[in-house]
Design brief:
The longest helix is centred in the first third of the chain and has 16 residues. The protein contains two helices and 34 strands. A hairpin with a 3-residue loop joins β28 and β29. The chain is mainly beta and 403 residues long.
Length: 403
């Protein structure tokens, strides 16, 4: 993938250098997506924050105004009220209940809505639980903002153990269960490495913590990379999103080796949550969602979402991707089925090339074309990937056009 991408960029760069071409990023891909708003509080009174697959086959979500909602795979939503304002994370617990976070506590809710409980995270200062996941040891694991230490474990009875992963203020992000049975979380800054406690250097990377509390930090040495969310994914690796000058999707082995891929975001968009199946899916600001294959091939899809910020993501029991909309909606994204078997389109006019790609269940990706020239009059000079590549349906094929 790296060599192919380099070759494509070199080809485009050579043409751009002549002054004849300007690179334009086209919206790539059509996807089936529907947004549900009925039964969900709208506007300032709502504010859908997070979503997770529940043990009952439904999706559960939090609203910042103090509601917890449930939406069925068919899109029927109901809300429960009377929770504290400022709800954030939500997760299925190992006890078959729904667990969620407030500004200083972790709550438990049975799926029938009948039983509720709040457990303070404790500490001084207590900190705000930012992310939450059911651990492999039958407990809940969470990260804390504004607290030292900043990683915690809570039993289903509400007993809390906190682990000293920093020597000062830190910036923990999302936490997930890794393919090795440990907990992994993204650390955005101010993590002082245990082997160099006097250095005081800012650490940005991914941190591993075992269920016994043993901590191993893995630094991301690429300048400007700020990891945010992570998930277990293809190849037995951790996959994560990272903001920075060029938003990235990263792959981290359990041994700490990482590879970064360009997330190919549209201009002025931000990257957010990530989930995994056969491919990786990540949220993008402006109501978009990205799909990346394990080799780094990206297709960006539009959804009906009106949100400016990236939504939270969850994989439902139906195999679809569910995404929150901060304005008061939940979007269901149906991953395209089948394959895109890339046809040869070199030598064809752009319009005919686009039709041929569509018939092959592929889409037009990034396009390099001469300035101030209508694409319909241009021919395809180069394509990437090449003819015969077998890709997920609706994959984006990049084109270089010429007169």
């Amino acid at each position: 993938m790296g060599a192919g991408r380099a070759a494509r960029r070199a080809a485009c760069a050579a043409l751009v250098a002549t002054g004849a071409l300007a690179l334009a990023c086209a919206s790539a891909g059509a996807i089936k997506a529907v947004e549900y708003r009925a039964g969900i509080a709208q506007g300032p009174a709502g504010g859908v924050a997070a979503i997770a697959a529940g043990p009952d086959g439904n999706l559960w979500f939090t609203e910042r105004a103090g509601r917890i909602g449930r939406i069925t795979p068919a899109g029927v939503a109901t809300e429960l009220t009377g929770f504290p304002a400022g709800l954030l994370a939500i997760a299925a617990g190992p006890d078959g209940a729904i667990w969620f976070t407030t500004s200083d506590s972790i709550g438990r809710l049975t799926v029938d809505g009948a039983t509720r409980a709040l457990y303070p995270v404790g500490g001084e200062p207590p900190g705000m639980p930012l992310s939450l996941v059911g651990g492999p040891d039958g407990a809940l694991w969470f990260t804390l903002v504004g607290s030292d230490p900043d990683v915690g474990r809570m039993t289903t009875a509400g007993a809390v153990t906190r682990f000293a992963s920093t020597y000062g203020p830190s910036q923990p992000e999302q936490i997930a269960v890794g393919p090795d049975g440990a907990l992994w979380y993204a650390e955005g800054g101010n993590f002082i490495e245990p082997e160099h406690p006097s250095a005081g250097t800012t650490f940005r990377g991914i941190v591993r913590i075992t269920t016994a509390g043993a901590i191993t930090p893995f630094r991301l040495r690429t300048s400007g990379v700020h990891p945010f969310d992570l998930t277990s994914g293809p190849g037995g690796a951790l996959w994560f999103t990272a903001s920075g000058p060029t938003p990235q999707v990263g792959r981290l082995t359990t041994a700490g080796r990482y590879t970064l891929f360009d997330a190919r975001l549209p201009r002025d968009r931000t990257i957010g949550s990530i989930v995994a199946g056969r491919n990786l899916w990540y949220a993008i600001g402006g109501g978009r969602i990205g799909r990346m294959t394990p080799k780094g091939l990206v297709t960006i899809f539009r959804t009906p979402s009106r949100a400016v910020a990236p939504g939270d993501l969850a994989v439902g029991s139906d195999g679809n991707i569910w995404m929150t909309d901060e304005t008061g909606g939940i979007v269901k994204v149906v991953p395209p089925r089948g394959r895109c078997v890339v046809p040869r389109v070199i030598g064809l006019r752009f319009a005919r090339a686009a039709q041929r790609l569509h018939r092959a269940h592929c889409t037009v990706g990034r396009v390099a074309a001469p300035r101030r020239t209508h694409r319909g009059s241009l021919f395809v000079l180069r394509q990437f990937p090449r003819r015969g590549a077998r890709l997920p349906a609706e994959s984006a094929i990049d084109l270089v056009l010429s007169r």
